[in-house]
Structure formats: structure tokens, C-alpha cells
Amino acid sequence: MDKTGDGFNFLKTKFPRLSEAKIKEGIFVGPQIRQLFKDSTFMKHLNRKEKRAWLAFKNVCMNFLGSKKSDDYVAHVEELLSAYKAM
Q1: How far apart, in Å, are the Cα atoms of 24 and each of 7, 19, 30, 33, 57?
Q2: CA distance 58 to 65
Q3: Separation between Cα atoms, residue 59 and residue 42, nearest integer Å
Q4: DSSP annotation string for 23-36
Q5: Euclidean distance between CA atoms 23 and 34, whole angstroms
């Protein structure tokens, strides 16, 4: 994630008690991640590559990491890896 971009600044504002070091390294816990899943404004602050990676991450969380696994979980994981490499 671009440390000078809107997405990073949004995270600093959204989680003011979280240290900047943790935000830079992407260290978030489940409740914080779920808050971002529900926040419709978060994606508006991301650039195209960040948005692709965020949607891929969200897809993996919803279709692979939960108690039920999607039949096409391999495709979800491959998209996540591809999106993160592109960043």
C-alpha cells in the first residue's frame, strides 16, 4: 500500500489508537478487518491496484478462511496472490 496515499491516511484516521508502525506493516486483528469490510468509504480511498488487492483479500476471507470453503477457492487464492504481486 502506498504509504503517502489516501488509503493509508484513511486507515490512520479510522484506527487512531493503532500505531503507525502496525498500520505500515498491515497488522490488523479480526474486529478491525471486519470493520473495514463493512465500511463503504474505505474502497473510495484506494487506488486501482489497492482496490483489486483488497477485493481479492475480502474474497479469500469470505470464501476460503471461514467455516465453509468455496468450491473455487483455488481461483480466489490465485487472484489474491496475483493482486498482491501487482502492488
Answers
A1: 11, 9, 17, 15, 17
A2: 10
A3: 16
A4: HHHT---HHHHHHH
A5: 16
d(C-alpha 30, C-alpha 79), whole Å: 22
- Residue carrying C-alpha cell 490488523: 28
pLDDT tens track for 9-23: 899 999 998 888 898
Write the DSSP assignment of 5-65 as a string of letters: SHHHHHHHHH-TTS-HHHHHHT---HHHHHHHHH-TTGGGGS-HHHHHHHHHHHHHIIIII
- Domain positions in the chain are 1-46, 47-86
Residues 64/76, Cβ–Cβ less than 8 Å? yes
Q: How far is CA 48 from the centre of its chain?
A: 13
At 5-59, the pLDDT tens digits run 898 889 999 999 888 889 888 888 888 989 999 998 999 999 999 999 999 999 9
